[in-house]
Backbone:
């Protein structure tokens, strides 16, 4: 209390005495108030910030074409080489259903599995999103989506791909706008006509027809639950791919229906005890799988083609895509492949089955006539013909000899020594051992002594090739394979000279065309022959035959002459390949018209068998696939045509 | 504080009105609902300020919360484009939002300082007997 205050009190004869609150009490009060108020203000600030963010995304979604949801896409028609329809790009090949055709039991199952508060939320489910966000926070990544049906529809229609919070917020904003434009039933119908149910089935109509051979309105409860269980991951939960997972998800959906009160305990037990078999046969699956695969592959090629146009079209509706592929041939090849692999007397555990890939090219144009990327596309969508890179093993040797002949002084008559060779100099497969004791096309290998290089190539002798590789060198080898059309870099190891470096099937098949084309590789392989606009105008044609010469014509002829002829296919030559650990079996063949390549192996890099040679595993299959295409009357010889 | 609050809310209202009304006239890109955002925040602050002449604490509390919401809304509105590295501070709508956020922040900070360093109130210290004159 200061002097002024004291004076004031002395002058006042009052009985009431006033004073300022003590400083410590005042400070304590402010501190307590601040501690109590700060969290409240922080929450208000956070809420306002979230509102601002939501507003920002909602504004950004103003340009979305909301009518697109109910407008079916026509897409671009894809035709094969015989003008047979393969499918459509930019549309979903659906069987459209109306609200009346969707049974109530299916809606119950769908809501139980995917969106329990569908009829009450405004497009996004706050509680569901919070639950998903917490789960994602705990797993330190984005695991759960928490998306409502409306969000899923928005994501599908507007192609909101990827997993990020930005995409999620855009999806919520779009969903809120859709809820403002459509009724809940309209959203439900559009969702069910678009959603992917795996194995190439888009929409409920196609899924009911494909899995159970019936209309959507005829589905039973267990069938409805099984179809709904596929939605979270169609490529993994399809009953054609994994019946066990599909059944687990079906049971989960049925249990949720019980929790919701849609099913009684007795009904639940009854449906849980059912098997719910699918009607689709394995043959159907293989056939349909190749169609889906081709549509996906052609779409990728088309999109990258369109990306190079100066004025890309806003929509693909009405376009016609003519391709070089033979649809029925492709389907037959897949069936042959599956049958052949099934009959192979090697171990085939379910979790590590044998896989194969096959490519057939037209030598002059580089057009792809057949491209089978998976034994059964419905089970595995991994395209081994394009995406996979594996060591070609001894099937790479023709390029080593070509490099040697190109640079001289080697010729087919040059003598090479076939005698033990210390593998520590090459490190092929492993650093131990003596070359020739494994990884040779001849299991009963014996040392020949000095032999002509053409014979060494013909018999796929490893030790002469290893000696030759030391003369060729990696730089020369890289130059030759690049000019032959192999774009993948060879690894910087001596074994790369003899096929230890991983390469793709498609680029290897293209490189093999140099031997059929007198040293000139085929143009960049492609499936699309031409793209026709809705007006009928042809917009795109394949590139003209322009690749530069990779090898001298004499070199190509020498290699071609050295390669063994096929006993089953007239006038064709080829080379098989085996990797050191028997993980990959290859065969490449060619005649005047075509070049083809086939790979057999396992995705987990485990050995096919021990031993497993390309000549015994891959070659017979390649010959079986090609036997329907190459007939004696149609084939002439492997003499080389002149190129412009 | 009430005068300062009145000035701030007036400035916000003016910013909002200029950005909404003047947008097309000045040939700027089409305005969206971000343009009149300062009007909403300024309006709420003004309401609180006017109320504070009747109920001081309640009115200033409303003005303070309005300013807090103004900061949050402006940050939320700009945050997504900033995270996507697409934020351009020279855009007119962003400049208005930055102005609003700045003004609201100053207001909030000053209010907080004013709250923390407010004078100690006079309190009743009890009843004492009147001062007696010396008996001498």
Residues:
């Amino acid at each position: 209390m200061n002097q002024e205050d004291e004076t004031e009190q002395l002058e006042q004869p009052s009985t009431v005495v006033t004073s300022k609150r003590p400083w410590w009490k005042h400070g304590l009060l402010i501190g307590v108030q601040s501690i109590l108020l700060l969290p409240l203000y922080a929450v208000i600030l956070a809420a306002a910030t979230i509102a601002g963010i939501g507003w920002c995304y909602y504004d950004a979604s103003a340009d979305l074409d909301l009518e697109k949801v109910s407008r079916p896409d026509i897409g671009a028609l894809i035709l094969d080489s015989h003008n047979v329809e393969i499918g459509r790009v930019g549309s979903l090949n659906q069987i459209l259903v109306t609200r009346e055709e969707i049974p109530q039991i299916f809606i119950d199952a769908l809501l139980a599995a995917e969106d329990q508060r569908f009829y009450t939320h405004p497009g996004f489910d706050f509680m569901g999103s919070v639950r998903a966000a917490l789960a994602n926070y705990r797993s330190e990544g984005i695991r759960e989506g928490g998306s409502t049906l409306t969000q899923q529809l928005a994501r599908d229609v507007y192609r909101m791909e990827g997993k990020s919070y930005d995409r999620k917020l855009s999806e919520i904003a779009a969903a809120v706008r859709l809820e403002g434009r459509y009724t809940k039933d309209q959203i439900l119908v559009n969702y069910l006509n678009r959603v992917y149910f795996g194995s190439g089935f888009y929409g409920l109509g196609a899924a009911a027809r494909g899995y159970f051979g019936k209309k959507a309105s005829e589905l039973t409860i267990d069938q409805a639950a099984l179809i709904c269980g596929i939605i979270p991951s169609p490529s993994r939960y399809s009953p054609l791919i994994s019946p066990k997972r599909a059944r687990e998800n079906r049971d989960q959906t049925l249990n949720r229906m019980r929790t919701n009160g849609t099913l009684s305990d007795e009904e639940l037990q009854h449906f849980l005890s059912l098997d719910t078999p699918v009607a689709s046969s394995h043959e159907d699956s293989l056939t349909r799988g190749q169609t889906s695969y081709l549509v996906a592959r052609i779409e990728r090629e088309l999109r990258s083609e369109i990306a190079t146009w100066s004025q890309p079209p806003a929509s693909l509706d009405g376009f016609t895509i003519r391709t070089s592929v033979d649809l029925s041939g492709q389907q037959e090849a897949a069936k042959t492949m599956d049958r052949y692999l099934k009959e192979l007397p090697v171990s085939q555990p379910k979790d590590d089955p044998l896989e194969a890939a096959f490519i057939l090219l037209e030598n002059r144009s580089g057009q792809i006539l057949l491209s089978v990327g998976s034994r059964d596309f419905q089970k595995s969508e991994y395209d081994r013909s394009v995406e996979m890179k594996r060591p070609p093993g001894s099937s790479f040797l023709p390029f080593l000899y070509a490099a040697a002949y190109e640079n001289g002084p080697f010729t087919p008559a040059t003598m090479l020594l076939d005698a033990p060779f210390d593998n520590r100099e090459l490190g092929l497969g492993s650093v131990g051992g003596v070359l020739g004791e494994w990884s040779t096309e001849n299991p009963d290998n014996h040392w020949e002594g000095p032999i002509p290089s053409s014979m060494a190539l013909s018999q796929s002798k490893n030790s002469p090739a290893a000696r030759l590789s030391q003369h060729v060198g990696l730089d020369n080898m890289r130059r030759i394979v690049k000019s032959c059309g192999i774009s993948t870099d060879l690894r910087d190891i001596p074994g790369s000279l003899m096929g230890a470096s991983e390469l793709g099937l498609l680029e290897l098949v293209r490189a093999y065309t140099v031997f059929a084309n007198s040293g000139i590789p085929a143009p960049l392989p492609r499936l699309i022959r031409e793209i026709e606009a809705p007006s009928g105008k042809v917009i795109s044609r394949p590139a003209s035959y322009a690749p530069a010469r990779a090898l001298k014509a004499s070199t190509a002829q020498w290699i071609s002459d050295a390669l063994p002829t096929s006993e089953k296919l007239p006038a064709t030559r080829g080379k098989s390949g085996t990797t050191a650990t028997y993980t990959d079996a290859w065969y490449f063949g060619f005649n005047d018209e075509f070049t083809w390549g086939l790979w057999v192996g396992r995705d987990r890099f485990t050995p096919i068998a021990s031993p497993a040679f390309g000549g015994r595993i891959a070659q017979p299959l390649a010959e079986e696939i090609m036997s329907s295409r190459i007939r004696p009357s149609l084939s002439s010889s492997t003499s080389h045509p002149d190129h412009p | 504080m009430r005068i300062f609050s009145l000035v701030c809310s007036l400035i916000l209202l003016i910013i909002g009105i200029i950005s909404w009304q003047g947008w097309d006239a000045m040939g700027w890109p089409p305005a969206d609902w971000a343009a009149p955002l300062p009007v909403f925040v300024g309006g709420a602050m003004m309401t609180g300020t006017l109320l504070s002449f009747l109920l001081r604490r309640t009115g200033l509390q409303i003005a303070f919360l309005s300013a807090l919401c103004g900061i949050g809304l402006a940050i939320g509105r700009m945050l997504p484009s900033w995270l996507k590295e697409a934020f351009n501070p020279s855009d007119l709508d962003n400049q208005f939002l930055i102005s609003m956020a700045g003004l609201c922040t100053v207001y909030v900070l000053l209010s907080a300082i004013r709250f923390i360093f407010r004078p100690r109130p006079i309190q009743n210290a009890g009843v004492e007997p009147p001062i007696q004159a010396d008996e001498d």
Remarks:
- The first helix of chain A runs from residue 3 to 11.
